[in-house]
Sequence to fold (113 residues):
Amino acid sequence: MCIFCKIVNGEIPNRTVLENENFLAFEDINPACKIHVLVIPKEHYDSFDVIPPKIMAEMTEFIHKIASKLNIRENGYRLITNIKEDGGQEVHHLHFHILAGERVGRLVCKETV
Ligand code: 5GP
Ligand code: ZN
Fold:
């Protein structure tokens, strides 16, 4: 079972930000920003590349709720999902990163800097 499925079923503890029947948002263990939250569907999908669009629509609504709860909608935030090897994905259970609370840096490919 993947590490985020273990978080969903309670085997690995997490600091929950928001949860409903189908989705979970929790703090990243190694934050890259003042606010760094991970958002996952409770059902396992390997990445964004295979998520059914209907579930993505529900996830969009859930992410809007998290942004409201964190009070980051006015100043803004960055929403990222890494996909497979070239995308830099390390945990192969679909997750979105919400980065906020400060001005985030430029998006770069390390090969170009
Ligand atoms: P990826 O590189 O796959 O897009 O991001 C994986 C993220 O999961 C990383 O930011 C990493 O810090 C986070 N992460 C990995 N293991 C755990 C864990 O056990 N708990 C939490 N809260 N975050 C984790
Ligand atoms: Zn999983």
User: Anything to note?
Assistant: Residues 3, 12, 14, 26-30, 38, 82, 88-91 surround guanosine-5'-monophosphate (ligand 1) (CB under 6 Å). Residues 54-79+97-103 form one domain.
